[in-house]
């Protein structure tokens, strides 16, 4: 379980293919605090630390299922990823409950620099429109954000300067694919309504 508050950014040092999977060697400022088996969110995808070869590096692997449903397959060596370690029981929840289970990918349709903030418009599948509400929560590449405006096939989020500075959104471009995880409460409500209907 995560909160969508990005803790750090990691750098992809190496990508190792094998049997349809990809193993990523990540450079991170908290690698020395990890142990094998720890859960870490990478662009909103929960992955398991497999090895910790140095105090600044660790490895994780993404299987075919994960690569098919997320943008991790788009990563190249040198790219940055948003990182968050799993939620501790004694910590504050500053964002919202994020599972690290990406529901779908969106596409960045428009980015506006407003000087003091940025606006991102994201295209998303219409089949998921029941899962978004204005002022509701959305995790975008693992970042807890609020839906500012909503259309049938796209939504807008407003990004404060702190978020631009401390996440990989600053390097994002129009047409980039981005991981989306909808609010777990909305998914449960949708499931209950379908079961009753």
In a nutshell, what does this entry contain?
By secondary structure, the protein is mostly beta strands.
Describe the structure.
With 197 residues, the chain is mostly beta strands. The protein folds into two domains: 8-85, Elongation Factor Tu (Ef-tu), domain 3, CATH 2.40.30.20; 104-196, Elongation Factor Tu (Ef-tu), domain 3, CATH 2.40.30.20. Helix content is 13%, strand content 42%. It is built from three helices and 13 strands, in the order E-E-E-E-E-E-H-E-E-E-E-E-E-H-E-H. It has helices spanning 64-69, 161-166, 184-196, and strands at residues 8-18, 21-27, 39-42, 45-48, 51-54, 57-62, 80-85, 104-113, 118-123, 137-140, 143-150, 154-159, 177-182. The protein has a seven-stranded antiparallel sheet with strand order 4-3-7-1-2-6-5. A six-stranded antiparallel beta barrel has the order 8-9-12-11-10-13. The longest helix has 13 residues, at 184-196. It is globular. The two termini are 30 Å apart.
């Amino acid at each position: 379980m995560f909160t969508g508050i990005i803790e750090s950014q990691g750098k992809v040092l190496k990508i190792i293919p094998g049997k349809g999977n990809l193993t990523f060697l990540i450079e991170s400022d908290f690698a020395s605090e990890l142990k094998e088996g720890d859960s870490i969110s990478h662009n909103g995808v929960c992955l398991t630390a497999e090895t910790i070869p140095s105090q600044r590096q660790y490895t994780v692997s993404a299987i075919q299922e994960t690569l098919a449903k997320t943008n991790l397959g788009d990563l190249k060596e040198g790219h940055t990823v948003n990182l968050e370690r799993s939620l501790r029981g004694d910590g504050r929840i500053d964002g919202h409950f994020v599972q690290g289970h990406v529901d779908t990918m969106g596409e960045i349709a428009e980015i506006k620099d407003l000087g003091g903030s940025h606006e991102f418009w994201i295209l998303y599948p219409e089949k998921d429109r029941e899962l978004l509400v204005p002022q509701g929560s959305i995790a975008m590449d693992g970042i807890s954000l609020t839906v500012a405006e909503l259309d049938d096939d796209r939504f807008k989020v407003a990004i404060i300067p702190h978020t631009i500075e401390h996440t990989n959104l600053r390097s994002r471009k129009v047409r980039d694919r981005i991981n989306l995880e909808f609010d777990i409460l909305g998914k449960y409500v949708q499931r209950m309504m379908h079961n009753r209907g």
